[in-house]
Amino acid sequence: MIRANLSTRPFYNERLVHFWLIAVGLAVLAATAFNASRVLRYSRSDTRLATQASSDESRAADLRRQAARLRASVDPRQVDFAAADARQANDLIDRRTFSWTELFNRFETTLPDDVRIASVKPRLDRERGILLTINVLAKTVEDVSTFIENLEQTGAFTNIRPADERTDESGLLTSSLEAVYVPTAGKPAIRSGGRR
User: Fold this and answer.
1) DSSP assignment of 79-103, as one string?
2) Nearest CA-CA partner of 131 in 83, 182, 81, 185
3) Strand ranges, E, within the chain
4) Buried b or exposed e, range 153-170, using 16+ CB within 10 angstroms
5) Which residue in 149, 156, 145, 144 sits closest to 106, CA to CA?
6) Side-chain half-sphere exposure of 127, counting CA atoms within 13 A
7) How far apart are CA 117 and CA 131, in angstroms?
8) How far does Cα 170 stand from its chain's mean position?
9) How is residue 64 annotated by DSSP?
10) pLDDT for 122-172, tens place per residue?
């Protein structure tokens, strides 16, 4: 058995160890630089956002003070006068959009032969729109019912209900109908019992 060391100096792989230590050191250095740049960037962003939030809060407080000042300077009577003027203007616009020709054309296409219209009275209702009171003369209750069905099928008349019915001295049935009229609804269909 040989006891002598044949190499004068034992071989160690020092270069590989040094290479890995340098690589790890560079990775740690790069991560540290990246983290430091992010900290600086977020710190600047946080400072800028805090400054902007502070200025926004002061501007909001100023706007609230201005709004309170303006509310205090508004005269409630002026608001009421303006609202009354707006209502009056809306009523005038609604009246202008009401077409008697369109209404009577609808009646002409839906009126049975044995029913006559004695009077029509429109009025404006804030919630329901145009309300019509239609006074008709008919021979029978069935004729009035046919007229009501024809009106409902046009789509322009809703909530039709008889308000008053009586027979006059000549034996004709006088019926007062109330209905909501929507002039913008589709054209009325011509019924078989209606006029053409």
Assistant:
1) HHHHHHHHHHHHHHHHHHH--HHHH
2) 182
3) 115-125, 129-138, 157-167, 173-181
4) ebebbeebeeeeeeeeee
5) 156
6) 0
7) 16
8) 54
9) H
10) 887 777 778 889 999 998 889 889 999 999 898 888 888 888 888 888 888
Question: If residue 195 lies in a helix (H) or strand (E), which one and from where to where?
Answer: none
CA angle 103, 108, 109 (to 5 degrees): 100
**For the whole prediction, is pTM greater than 0.70?**
no
Residue 110 C-beta-side C-alpha neighbours within 13 Å = 25
The 10s digit of each residue's pLDDT in 31-71 is 999 999 999 999 999 899 999 999 999 999 999 999 988 88
Q: Residue 45: CA atoms inside 13 Å, Cβ hemisphere, count? A: 6
If one looks up domain 99-181 in CATH, what number appears?
Answer: 3.30.1360.100
